[in-house]
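Protocol step 4 of 5: obtain the predicted structure for the target chain.
Materials: sequence only (see below). No template structures provided, no constraints applied. The aim of this step is simply to have a reference model before the mutagenesis design in step 5. Sequence pasted as it appears in the construct record:
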Amino acid sequence: MTKERTLVFFGAHPDDESFGPGATLAKYALMGVKVYVVCSTGGEAGTVSPEHMKGYASVAELRTAELDCAAKALGLAGLIRLGYRDSNMRGTPDNNNPDCLNMAPLDQVAGKIVKIMREIRPDVVITHDPSAAYGHPDHIATHQAVIKAFHAAGDPAKYPAAGQAFQPGKLYFGVRPHGTMKLMMKLMPLFGQDPHHFGRNKDIDMTKMVGVEYPIHTVIRLPKKAVQVRNEAAACHASQGGGRFRSGPFMLLQIINKLRGPRDYFMRKYPVPTGRHQENDLFEGLSGKS
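Step 4 output (C-alpha cells):
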C-alpha cells in the first residue's frame, strides 16, 4: 500500500508560511501531499495601518483572518496554532509579556510540537534556520522547539502524554542563497535604504541574514502554478505588505530570480547529508511504502 505523503511547516508568525516556503508548500499540495502549517503566535505585535483594521477588533483578529485566507489559498490539509502571543523584537515591552512565546519554557513548546508530530505523522518537517533570519525571538524559539521535538517525537520515553511515538523522516530549514543576500545588502543603500534599519519600524537588521552562510542541500524548482498560488496566499497578508516588495533592490532580485527560474532553497538537518549530492525533492530517499 502506498503511503500518503505528509509535510509540515512550523512558522513563528502568520505570513511566515507564505513569505517563506509558500511556493514549495503549494507545489506539494498540488501534487496531492498532505501539507500542514503550524503557527506559533498570533502576530499581535505586527505593525498594521489603520485602513486594514476596518471590521476587526484587534490586530490578532485581523491576522487570524489573514492566515485563514492564506491556508485556504495554499490548499492546506490543516492549519494549527500553538496559541502563544507575538514576542516582538528584543528590547520591546512585548518581549516580556508572560503570554508571549519568548517567555514560554522550551520544554513546554516542544511538548506541544511533539503532540502535533505524533498526531499528523509527517514525513518531512520544515522550519526556520538557526539564525532565524534577522534574529526575531519568535523565529529562534520556534526553531529551537522544533529541533527538540523532532528528536523527541520518536522516543516513547519522552513526552509520554503526547501520544504514540512517531519519528518524522527528514528535517529541513528554509534558507536563502548567501550570494543573493549579499547582493541585496549592497543594493539597498543605492535605493536609499539602510540594511541595518529595515522594515516599518526600522527595527530589523538585515545584515544579520548574511552573518552566517548555510549550506544548500535541496533546491526546489517551482512551477508557475505553485508560484501563482503562493502569490495569492501572500496577498492574504495585506496588513503586512502582501509579500510584494516593490522597492529597488527587491525588485531587482525578483528580476534575477525570474530569469534564473523560481526556486526555494533548503538546508537538510536530518538525516545529516554526506557528499555533494543536491536534492530536488524534499521526499527523496524516503520509502514509498507504509
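Step 4 remarks: The mean pLDDT is 89. Residues 6-178+213-248+264-270 form a domain with the Rossmann fold fold (CATH 3.40.50.10320).
Proceed to step 5.
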